[in-house]
Queue: 2 jobs
Job 1
Amino acid sequence: MKNILVTGGAGLIGSHTVDLLLEKGYRVRILDNLEKPTHLSGRPSYIPSRAEFIEGDIRSERDVKGALKGIDGVIHLAATGGFTPRIIEYLEANTIGTALMLQIIRNERLPIKKIVVASSVAVYGEGKYQCSKHGVVFPPIRPIEQMERKEWELKCPFCASELKALATDELTPVKPQKVYSVSKFDQERLVLGLGEEFGIPSAALRYFVTYGPRQSLSNPYTGLCSIFSTRLLNDLPAVVYEDGLQTRDFVYVKDVAAASVLVLESDKSDRQVYNVGTGNSLSVLDIAKTLSRIYKKDIAPEIGGKFRPGEVRHIVADIAKLKSIGFKPKYTFEDGIREYVEWIRSQGDVKDYFSRAQTDLTKDQVVRNCR
Ligand SMILES: NC(=O)c1ccc[n+]([C@@H]2O[C@H](COP(=O)([O-])OP(=O)(O)OC[C@H]3O[C@@H](n4cnc5c(N)ncnc54)[C@H](O)[C@@H]3O)[C@@H](O)[C@H]2O)c1
Ligand SMILES: [Zn+2]
């Protein structure tokens, strides 16, 4: 494999993946439509001149056909994400975009040797939990009425006692809840199912929460570290949903890029799905506090009784499967966040796009107030 197409290669994960592929001697082509509000000021300067850049859309047959010409391997990252009220757009870009790419590969009999598709932690909904009486359980997401009452923790579906989160492995049943999650699971199944049918080795990566330099500073719908940073740097409080004690597995983008290239190259990864995370969990409040300490902004986070229906309470990756093919995260959160903050400081003045978005999201009931 020599020629690799990275769709979404102008984005956070894509751009670091492109850098790593070039470093390893691959020839790289990017297909990216520079979606707004992620790319408000057009083509990012970090796109290397050594990569071929096609400004084009994964939903366009012409663009995708052109992008696939002469390609040996695909890392498919282009997608619409974030908490927004949109519905059809997720399916169009993610589900249909992936189906279109696969249809072109089949119709044109393209000699692709490997496809790696970006799935997400979101496919699990709530992951794996432990009940003291019932052992391992896989609870559904919390009902809206429960969240309105500010009862944040998960209850056992059998006895209603409070559950403890366990590390979620790939055998955990998927329960995609939001449209975004449904579309990510579609992508995963389409690539693995049709990949097998076409005889193309394929793998899906369930990325956990990824952060790092180049995470859009203008997209207020996704990217916790960037949203909190732009708030604090404008002397505004970080807005924390629920009580801030919900936990996530934050993984540094360079580790995510390394995992993606590892899976592209591994001949053991055919038809497999892998969690990509660190195995460590941090609360949202931990992130808010860490960033205000680093920025030396003594601004208490706003914990204002807001929540987002469908949001998961706790999820942390079991990464044993990815480790079994040679993955080892290199970055601790402290190291990763230091590099991220260094980058943000080099970006000049940053704006707060969140206040306005939050008003709209509340109007559209994507964000709700507790009773
Ligand atoms: N960042 C995370 O925490 C995270 C977690 C789980 C899964 N993922 C998945 O990883 C992939 C990359 O995410 P990211 O964090 O780098 O996001 P990102 O928004 O930084 O990058 C996505 C890129 O895709 C491009 N894009 C969007 N729609 C497109 C379209 N229709 N045609 C062509 N290009 C399009 C955007 O312009 C952007 O450059 C996505 O598939 C996302 O769903 C990300
Ligand atoms: Zn129980």
Note: The longest strand covers residues 114-120.
Job 2
Amino acid sequence: MAKKVLIIGAVALGPKAAARCRRLDSNIEILMIDQGNFISYGGCGMPFYLSGEVDNVHALRQTSAHVNRDPDFFNDVKNVEVRIHTKALSIQKEDKTVSVENLDTGEKYDIAYDELVLGTGSSPIIPQIPGINLQNVCAISCLEEAMSIRENCAKSKLENVVIIGGGFTGMEVAVALADMWSLKCTLIKRSPRLLPSLISETISEMVRHDLGSLGIDVISEEEVLELRGENGEVKEVITSKRTLKAEQVIFAMGVKPNSEIAQKAGLDCNPRGGIRVNEYLQSSHPHIYAGGDCVVMKNIISGKEQHLPMGSLANRHGRIIGTNVAGGNPVCGMETFNGVVGSWCMKLAKGSASGTGLTVDEAKKAGFDAMSVNVEQLDRAHFYPEKDMMTLEVTVDKKTRRVLGMQGYCANGDALKARIDTVAAMLQFSKPTLNDLSNVEVAYSPPLASAMDVINTAANVADNVLSGVHNAISPAQFVELWEQRENNNYIFVDSRPAKASQILAEKYPDYWYSMPLEGFDKVISKLPQGKNIAFICNSGTRAYECQRKLKRTGRDSVNSAGGMQAMKKRGQEF
Ligand SMILES: Cc1cc2nc3c(=O)[nH]c(=O)nc-3n(C[C@H](O)[C@H](O)[C@H](O)COP(=O)(O)OP(=O)(O)OC[C@H]3O[C@@H](n4cnc5c(N)ncnc54)[C@H](O)[C@@H]3O)c2cc1C
């Protein structure tokens, strides 16, 4: 008898597992079920459908040859049977059956399997506050919701949109609606900063400023208490501090794993419902595999469990599960997955943000004695006409100099992603040190990179800081010193060329000193004694050289890492 593989969930993980399994074995009976209407679609593309960059929603569910990935396609092309509107109700793991319900007819029946795959994904977190059932209140978790939001936009019914939650999808949706439909978008979140577990304060402020360029307001540390409407349609959002107009409310507060049937079947799950799997992506029962948004994985760096609801992960998991349910790789046997490092990227309004590994705060929580430093450097050769300043922030364990993570922001998202991906690969397969990152061999050509690549520079700056050669402070720390200048006895020494540095020196003669690097040796003795010194320049490099020169005279100072470029990106004006 042919082996039977049953797959529950048919969006990202399920179809990938089915296709891989079929390519390895033409005899296995593969049945994929999903409670929804649409299968095998690019949910990650929904914000770009809202923005109009993807003009037809069906493009998200088509192959590159414009063929719809529907049940007929899977049946005819992949020899995989698909049943939509079919909900799995329970798993009888000892009998190897799953009870399901046909949602159209109400019919309930059992399906037998030899290997079961759970690709049940995740669901949006939606608080049960008053007004939650008003019209035009939704998440953006499926094509139907994306279609309804876009329809509302197209009918010109909307002026104000409130997005609740400060994660990726909330920001992507805000950018899409503010840019394409010129809507007033407000993003409300509980945490003090955007993506708190994924980006540092420095990059978070850059992201906030980027969103602000489209008029998107970010309201932090506020709780949404109630939605109010008229004639059944939402009109207002009431928070702990204010009332906002809103004809559309979108929940983007994160997701929780869909694991009810796994939990009911007694599979090992973590307290937040993530299904625990081993390196073969088997659950606590060897004939039940799980992957994608419904599982928790080990974070390779922190060693802790992490729920990483990412389409990229679901696809990689799907391939491994497809191989393993087919009996393994024909040569190497069962395939393994060694954990996640948490890589992500996101296009914003003027730039993109990306990261991998741990932020400094997350690293500290994980028990590392961590520090981070940010750098600004051109993403291509300085003499090449098209270029942009890239921000990178590297997280390092102080004692071992192990690199723990990197995040960044840059107008050129591809260039940024190339750097983050390099670090991601290093983090996933080794325990890289600053020396490794300083010497990692990346490709160079002037239109694409600079000879000393920005990731090598980030390592060198961190190394200088740890070696006590460079006393760098973050942009936020510099701003704090500036704001407290009447009390803290600091003067601010600007090492940029005179043309740039004199403007602020004339504006703030008591505090801001124009002392360009060229000629700094000659004026160094004019720096008033008894004052604390904070250096700044365009990117941090010239000021670092001045700091070294000053140190040779016996005086300590601090230098603003990333300089004026970092200040500009966070919207800081002097
Ligand atoms: C707006 C948006 C933007 C995103 N952007 C990105 C991005 O840029 N990059 C990125 O990496 N990720 C992104 N993601 C995340 C990505 O879409 C998910 O990680 C991915 O879809 C997870 O795939 P999955 O197959 O594990 O689960 P899902 O896509 O959640 O699919 C699970 C399916 O299983 C079905 N199901 C659940 N329980 C049952 C049951 N009992 N019976 C039958 N069917 C069931 C569900 O209805 C669903 O159809 C984005 C997500 C959204 C919503």
Note: The CA atoms of residues 85 and 104 lie 7 Å apart.
